[in-house]
Amino acid sequence: MITVYVNGTARQLADDCNIARLVDELGYSGKRIAIECNADIVPRSLYEKHMLHDGDRLEIVGAVGGG
Amino acid sequence: MNDHLIIAGKSYSSRLLVGTGKYKDFAETRAALDASGTEIVTVAIRRTNLGQNPNEPSLLDAVPPSKYTYLPNTAGCYTADDAVRTLRLARELLDGHSLVKLEVLGDPQSLYPNVIETLSAAKTLVSEGFHVMVYTSDDPIIAKQLEDIGCVAIMPLASLIGSGMGILNPWNLQLIMDRVKVPVIVDAGVGTASDAAIAMELGCAGVLMNTAIAGAKNPVLMASAMKMATEAGRAAYLAGRMPKKLYSASPSSPTAGIIASVRS
Description:
The complex is a heterodimer.
Chain A: E1 2-6, E2 9-13, H1 19-25, E3 34-37, E4 40-42, E5 57-65
Parallel strand pairs in A: 1-5
Antiparallel strand pairs in A: 1-2, 3-4, 3-5
Chain B: E1 5-7, E2 10-12, E3 16-19, H1 26-36, E4 40-47, H2 59-62, E5 69-73, H3 80-93, E6 99-102, H4 115-127, E7 131-136, H5 140-149, E8 153-156, H6 170-179, E9 185-187, H7 193-202, E10 206-209, H8 211-214, H9 219-239
Parallel strand pairs in B: 3-4, 3-10, 4-5, 6-7, 7-8, 9-10
Antiparallel strand pairs in B: 1-2
Helix pairs in contact in B: 1-9, 3-4, 4-5, 5-6, 7-9
């Protein structure tokens, strides 16, 4: 198992987990989100390829009301 | 009349830009936006709520990006680095959308812009191909520097964010407009319709507001008031007001043909 931090919260994942699988686990498949891993953007097209590593810090964002 | 607001080469018929925060619900957001006639709406980029049902309605359903031009902003960012990261996320979120609102704040009480961080973020964003509409102080020298960096609109505050204090320093806005060629849009401080009209009468290219509408007792009615005020102020600016003078000595009615006095 590895531990990654999603929006500041620790989460246990399988060793061979990619971002697409994490997105699926979170129920975000097909949703309009954007993801940053360790302060770098991960384009949607790379979710399958991008493997997660122990200690990775992910930010998952959406659009909300704001001025 | 063919009088469009042009930002980064795109033409808009409304000069009123509206924020999507602080409304009671998405229905009110949508009704207020419709009443305002706005075409450009600001949105915030925030962490998704991991505990929440992912199928709940989202802002994107209520305010479809197909109908409105989204202006993702960096409200809440206090450093250039956070602002740049936020807008890179916004561009990914919105399929390569490049028109953004940069706002780097200085302190949480006043929400006054930190122009040093703003200049730094603007440089990075412009170099990465963003079209940056930038929130800033009403300092004309900083405004010109932001234009020189390549920002596509300069958006000075009229008074502090959310204060509703109106146009406190019209002279500085004038100094900015005298120096800057890109659209100057008043961002922050508008409290009521007359404030929007004053900004437009001064010659501003547009006004951006959120709390003035969302914080009104009847946001939808205020949105419609803001639409009319923005249009009225713009028309008055284009019409060219009469000069102010202490005495006119020029009455509106003819001076000839006045009936004679019977007391002699």
